[in-house]
Design goal:
With 40 residues, this protein is mainly α. It is 75% helix and 0% strand.
């Protein structure tokens, strides 16, 4: 089990960071709006 964690921990952290980025990005207005749509 320790070898499993040592091998897969970087992948788990990377996948977790990607999922977290997709969750946080819609909450951040600048990430979802392209710069061209700021003409209001």
């Amino acid at each position: 089990m320790d070898e499993f964690l040592m091998f897969y921990a970087p992948f788990i952290v990377l996948i977790g960071a990607i999922i977290l980025a997709f969750i946080v990005a819609p909450m951040d207005g600048a990430a979802t709006r392209p710069p061209k749509e700021k003409k209001k």
